[in-house]
Design goal:
alpha+beta, Aminopeptidase, eleven-stranded mixed beta sheet, 5 helices, globular
């Protein structure tokens, strides 16, 4: 993984941070991936909502990916980090397109109030809130906290009403899984960024979004730095 910020463009940092986060989640479920020839891939099916493969180079060609993942059952997915692959010949359909986003380092917000990190015993409640109130299925496991992940939450109402995951890797902070039950995405991003600025002063923030969530991120100081596409294979 890239650790020197001088060596990474905003796009490269965003991609490598996301791969590190995907690998952390997969490792927590016993399905670690391996980077080879510009592709991170897990030979075993990954946890729900997490890709079986992610490209790290725009030079990857479609033939480099399918042989690295499990295609024997439905649901295999590939994150084409540069929006440059056509995996339809391998039975994949384009699920959605999005934009990598980057927010430059700021001076931080010392003393700013906002979301706070939660402890391991509240991960199930956090996952339930993120999933719209559905019962936690153990997607996010306590070992992720030991791996550096920070699960931010707004608990001012006596329950978790908003939150996000912040993951430091590749010399940036990757934000994902942003949600807000009682407010819109603009308010959620403002609170989330106040928290990341407080926890990691001066660190750039990255992620990816699409649709209204992308528009909200851009209003909060992010810039789009490159397209990505997620592919899904329905058949086994």
């Amino acid at each position: 993984m890239i650790t020197d910020p001088r060596a990474a463009s905003p796009l490269t940092a965003a991609v490598h941070n996301n791969v590190a986060w995907c690998d952390a989640v997969c490792r927590s479920h016993g399905t670690p991936g391996e980077i080879k020839a510009g592709v991170w891939a897990s030979p075993r099916r990954t946890p729900p909502l997490y890709p079986d493969a992610v490209t790290l180079s725009p030079d990857v060609v479609p033939e480099d990916v399918p042989g690295r993942i499990d295609l024997t059952s439905s649901g295999a997915s590939v994150k084409d980090s540069f929006g440059s692959l056509d995996l339809s010949a391998a039975g994949f359909d384009a699920l959605f397109t999005a934009q990598w986003i980057h927010r430059p380092a700021t001076g931080g917000a010392p003393g700013a109030e906002g979301w706070r990190p939660i402890r391991a015993e509240r991960l199930s409640a956090w996952e339930s809130a993120w999933n719209g109130g559905a019962e936690s299925e153990g997607l996010f496991r306590p070992v992720l906290l030991d791996d550096g992940a920070v699960f931010l939450a707004d608990t001012s109402a006596g329950r978790i009403t908003a939150g996000a995951v912040a993951y430091p890797a590749a010399s940036v902070i990757g934000v994902s899984n942003l949600f807000a039950a009682d407010a819109g995405p603009d308010a959620a991003w403002r609170s989330c960024l106040a928290a990341t600025d407080r926890l990691w002063p001066g660190a750039p923030v990255v992620g990816y979004e699409h649709g209204d969530d992308l528009a909200a991120a851009l209003r909060q100081g992010f810039a789009p730095v490159g397209p990505l596409r997620v592919w899904l294979r329905a058949d086994g």
